[in-house]
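Table S2 (continued). Query chain:
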Amino acid sequence: MKKIIIFFIIFAFIQAAYAVPIEYDCNNYSLRNSFSSRVRINQDTGTLKILFIGSSYFNFNDLPGVFEELVQTSGKNIFVDHYGKNGLFLSDHANNLGTGAKINEQEWDFVILQGVGRNMAYPEYFTDHPVYPALVTLKEKIQKNCEQTKIIYCMPWAFEDGMTWYPGWYDTYEDMQLKIYDTTLNYSKEIDFTIAPVGWAWYLVLKEQGYPLHYLHTSDWNHPSLRGSYLMACVIYSTIYIEPSINISYNASLNEDESKYFQKVSSDIVLNNLSLWNIEEYNENSPPCNPEKPSGPTSIRRNVAYIFNSSTIDVDSDDVFYLFDWGDGNYSSWIGPYGSGEVVNANHSWAEIREYSIRVKAKDVYGAQSEWSEALQISKQKEINSYNFIKHVLEMIRSNLNVLSS
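Corresponding output:
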């Protein structure tokens, strides 16, 4: 009986060694005050109302439909409408009676605007359809209809061959995309709209893949392939919901590995650069404090699920959700809600053993997010593991008991 008691005492001691005391310190966050309000979800239906305004770039592969399917598969309610005809520029929409009537049909939560790469990259050369005044006019019309509507502009992508097809021009795809990037950021600051960094996601994917021909573009070197439209939908998803699209099962008939790759790229680009894209989700509401560094084992075995925990406090006493980044390209879903200060537990297993960094972030029930926590580093389990240690200690105790009884 004594041996059993001693065993449990030692086991409890070893388990406690994994625990890290939680100290609440909210000095490392800053309030983000902005013009924007919290995401307005219809209280009766729990549904976001979203309007897409564009042309053939949205029409190809039915981008609004792909986005709607992605959102619904994630378990959210959404109402999507779309107004756009092939060949229309934003300057056309700014003065189009049909566009104006569609804007006035609903108190939209979000209006998504589609741009054109050539006009955004070279506004001083292509003045037939100026982007800047069109954005100003559309913003005025949208917010006159509903002041709380959020305006999201999809950063365009460059032509696959840049401007090299145009007489006297030598800008490559990369040259053109970088100019689109700069102009979009400048306009966003001056006009004050949110950017869905679609073109930037395209740029990073194509660069990482080695610029395969007609991968995100179709054979016209211009419009999106199904891959391009799916990547666009994932970027817009993370821009609106401020959460990763990772692990949403809908893949728009793409290869599963490919769709997961697009989900990961788009989530990282959006969520790691919220201020860059002018994504402001706070208004008279403080985000939770940065969660504590995850606690749990620091050495792992292949295909064994391990439990990790963390906690944070919310200065507004709002309930909070937690998102774990497991360091292997996978994220948990948003877990919760939990009360402020309540400990969250999550588990994960790894198919491949190497070094990983586990981190966690929190968001309150209104969508205000903390920054990522400090990362916990884990690696392959050492040969002398907890089980062997316990076995070794028990053998020592047994030996000492034998000595005492003799």
